[in-house]
Design goal:
This is F-box protein. With about 220 residues, the chain is an all-alpha fold. The chain is about 65% helix and about 0% strand. The protein has two domains: about 50 residues, no CATH class; about 150 residues, no CATH class.
Length: about 220
């Protein structure tokens, strides 16, 4: 069987089904979408679709937000316009940390968090907690179910630290004030950052955040 035969069968599908197929491919990687498009001009026509941009996997970009936004401006804008939650996470980091546009940055991070992007849930939650908006911040952190298992939140924090590399990180005075005012009792070992309970979890996560190294 020649390799063009199955491709011809795919090309004969209705456009809405083709777009759905490509959008599913997009969840795997941007490279797979490009290869898919190169295989046929007919398939390429269905690729610049809002649903494709919404689902496009941007994990390589999330590792280096500044590089992504500076080198793939048009692509990132299309992803943002299409409601790609990973794109909002990337934009939120750039605005909040690098440009100090805190309100705009938080808008993007909240949108991504409300879209259930885990890294944004953690980052928005810890920022709001450090800013003194404890109820809202803790509500978002609790969505990661750390009381059952801290692994998911810890994984998000590792991703976030990688995303923040090269960023300008300002230790705002309000962060330090919030941490000082919410120090747990001496019953918790505050020097052991890995052992966390309901009394010290938020405090230790805030400490990790304000002490993060981005260089």
């Amino acid at each position: 069987m020649t390799p063009t035969k199955p491709l011809a069968q795919i090309e004969s599908l209705p456009n809405d089904i083709l777009r759905e197929i490509i959008s599913q491919v997009a969840t795997s990687s941007r490279r797979d979408v490009r290869h898919f498009m190169q295989s046929s001009p007919e398939l390429a026509k269905s690729a610049p679709d809002k649903q494709v941009y919404k689902r496009l996997n941007l994990k390589p970009f999330a590792k280096n937000p500044l590089w992504a936004l500076n080198n793939y401006t048009q692509l990132m804008e299309r992803c943002l316009e299409s409601g790609n939650m990973e794109a909002h996470y990337i934009k939120g980091i750039q605005q909040y940390f690098q440009h100090n546009n805190t309100n705009i940055g938080l808008e993007h991070l909240k949108k991504s968090a409300d879209g259930l992007y885990a890294d944004s849930i953690y980052l928005y939650g810890i920022i709001m907690t450090c800013r003194g908006q404890l109820e809202e911040g803790r509500t978002y952190l609790d969505k990661l179910e750390w009381k059952k298992n801290t692994a998911r939140g810890d994984r998000c924090w590792r991703h976030i630290k990688r995303s923040l590399r090269g960023m300008t990180f300002l230790r705002k005075r309000r962060y330090l004030t919030t941490i000082r005012n919410n120090k747990p009792t001496r019953l918790c070992n505050l020097n052991d950052m890995d052992t966390r309970c309901h009394k010290c979890y938020y405090y230790k996560q805030m400490l990790k955040f304000v002490n993060v190294r981005t260089t």
